[in-house]
Amino acid sequence: MSRIDTLQIHNFKFFNEQDPIILNGKHLLLYGENGSGKSSIYWALYTLFEASLKKDKVDIEKYFKHHTAHEQSLVNIHASIVPASPPVPEHYNSFIKVITKHNPPLEYTVSQLDTDIKDNTVAREVNQASDFISYKVLYKFQDFWNGKKMDLANIFIGNILSYINFPSKDLIRDGATKSFSNAWDMFSVIKEGPGTTTSSGKNKKKVIQVHKSSEDYKKFVPFVKHFNDEMKDLIDFINANAPKILKKLGYDIDFELHYQEMTFRKADVVYESHNFKIEFVITSYLGNPVTINRPQSFLNEAKITAIAIAIRLTILKRRINSEAGDILKFIVFDDVMISLDMNNRDRLIDFLLDPANDFTNDYQLLFLTHDKSFYDFLAYKIGRWDNMNNWVCKEMYTGKEDVSNREYPILIDSELEFIDRAKKYYSARDYTASAIYIRKEIEKLVNKRLPDELKLKTDGTFLSLQTMWSNLIERYVALNNPISEDTKELFAQTKLMVLNPQAHFQTLSSPLYKFELDKAFELVDKIKNDCPIPKNIILLGTGMKLSYKHHSEDFTLLFELVTDFSINSFETSAKQVLLPKCKIINWSFKGVPFLDVNTSKIIKYDISKRPILHRLDEVIDTNVNRMRLSNSIDSFLANTKVENSLWCLKEICDKAAISFRFDFIKNDIIAELN
C-alpha cells in the first residue's frame, strides 16, 4: 500500500523554506497552535492533487505567481523572486512535492514551472481515492435557511462529484465520440447540452441546438439517463450505509436522501438544464418514526456534523470499493471534530482507528488540530489501539525572526527528547519554550537517578525539583560518587531564571535569558557526564507480600512492598541499600484482627481506606523494639516469609550481604552492607 514518505511545502502559504515533513509512510497526528501554518499542510496536499483535475496549466500557474500578479496566489508573501533565465521565467521557487513510500517511490510535484501533474492519471486516481475533510466543508451541511428544505445538491456539485467515477458512457463532442466516467465531467456536459449546429434554413449562419434526429442527441438522452441512474445508485448506497455509521458514532437517528433527477429542455435555439436535487429527511429519532423535512431547524450543530461525517465516510467507502488499487490513499482531517462533544469525539476516533472498519488499513490518516487537549486525548486513544507504532506525532508553533519580524512555522517531532525540543526552540529564539523543555529534561535526568522514596510524596506525586536535587546530592555522597561543586553551582545559577516555572511567564531580557539557557544546557551535559545512573539489583519487587509469625506468641502480620527492595551501586564505588516502603495489610493478636499488642484495644479505622505505610526498617523496629513481645531482629527476619515462596527475609538478606542492627545513638534500625 502506497503511503506519503515526505511532504515538502516550499514558499507556499505560511511555509517558506522549511525542510520536508517526514512521515515515513505512517499516519500523522499534528497539533498546531493558531497561526502556525497547520492548515497550510491541508491546502498544500489539496492544491497538489486538485491540480491533477485541471485542464489548462494556466489554472495551476496562478497559485504559484506572486500575489501582485494574481489575486489567487498562494505564494508565501516573503518569498524572494528568482529572476528570469530564458526560457525559465521569473518565479518564486514555490512548489509542493510528495514522495511516496513505495517500491519504487513515486513523486508528485506542482509549481509554476512544473504543471505536468494535470496529465498524471495516477495523481488523478489518488485525488479521487482520497479525501479532505475540514470543519469548513462540514459547516456547509448546516448553512441552510430554516424556511427551506435541506437540499444537498450544491454540496455534492461543489465537493463530491469531482471525486466520483461512474461506469463510462460515450457522448459526441465536436464531431467526435468521447468517453466520460467522472461524475463532475458528466454533470458539466449535461449542463452544456447535446451540442449545437448551424441552421440549414434561410439564416444558415444561425447557431441552433442539434436536432433530435441527430446522433449527438441520440447519444445525449441515454447519457443523461445514465448519469441519473448512477446518482440514484450512489444515493441508495448512502441511504443503506451512512445511518449505520451514524449509529456507531453514538446517534440514534435514521435519515434518507431523496434524489430528484437532473432534467433538461431543448428548443431549437435555447437549451436549459435543471440541476438535480438531494433532499435530506430525518425518518427516525431515538427510535421513534418521524418525518422532518427541515433537519437544520431540528438538529443541533453536533448532530448535523456527525451526519455530514457519516455521509462523507460512506461516499469514501464507495469510492475505494470501485477504484481501489495499490495507489496512495489518504484522508486529511482538519479540525473536523470541534463541533462534537468529547463523548462523540471518542466514538468517532474509535470508529476510525478500529482495524475492523479498515480506515487505518486502507488510508493514511492525517489528523490536524489546534486543540492541544484533544491532541493529547487522540494520542492516548491511538496508543490504546496500536501503541503508536504506525503513527508520527508532530507539533507546530509560530517562530519569528528577530530583525525582520517575519513569522514562519516551527515543526517539532513529539517523539523528540525534551533536550532536542529545547535545542529546536532555542534555535528558533523561542527562549520561553526552550526553558520549559530544559526544565523537563533536568527533571527527567534527576528522576532517573533517584529511587521512588527519594522523589515521590506519600500521595504518589513528585517532590519539587529543588528537593529532588538535594536528595540526589545526598544519595551520590552515600554512593561514594559525590556531585562536583561545579555541577552544584551550575544548578544554583540556572535555578532562578530557567528552572523556576514562574520565570517562564515573565518578560525577560533576551540576551540575559539566552545566557542563562546556555548555562542550563551546560548543566544537562554535566548531569549526564558526572552523575552516572546507579546499577539497580532488585531483591524483592513492588507488589510482593510478606507474612510474619511470631516465634512463640499468637501474633501474625501481613504487609506488601510498595517500592522495590534493592541495592544500588556504581562499577567502582560503594553499594547502597534501598529499603522498601511497606503497606500494612492486616495483623492479628490472640486471634483478634487489628488488636493492639500494647493497649489490648482494637484499631477501628478502615485500614483499606487509610493505609499504614512504613519503611522496612520501621516495620522491623516496631515489631522488635516497640511491642511488648520478646523478639530480636534475626528472629523477625527468619520468621518473615515471602508469599508463595520458600524463602524467608533473613535468607534473602544474608545472600545479599545485608545486615540490620539497632543504633543506640540514633535510636533506630540501620541497614548495612557487609
Overview of this protein structure:
Residues 504-509 have low confidence and may be disordered. This protein has 674 residues and is an alpha+beta fold. The chain has a six-stranded mixed β-sheet, with helices on both faces. Strands 21, 22, 25, 26, 27 and 28 form a six-stranded antiparallel β-sheet that branches. A hairpin with a 2-residue loop joins strand 25 and strand 26 (592-593). 36% of the residues lie in helices and 25% in strands. It contains 20 helices and 30 strands. The two termini are 62 Å apart. The chain has four domains: 1-130 and 328-412, Rossmann fold (3-Layer(aba) Sandwich); 142-323, no CATH class; 416-533; 536-673, no CATH class.
Number of domains: 4
> Which CATH class of the largest domain is shown?
Alpha Beta
**Major β-sheet strand ordering:** 6-16-17-3-18-19
Beta strand %: 15-25%
* Helix-strand makeup class: alpha+beta
What value does the average pLDDT take?
87
**DSSP helix fraction:** 25-40%
Number of strands: 30
Large-scale geometry: elongated
Write a concise keyword list for the protein shown above.
single chain, 674 residues, alpha+beta, Rossmann fold, 4 domains, six-stranded mixed sheet, six-stranded antiparallel sheet, 20 helices
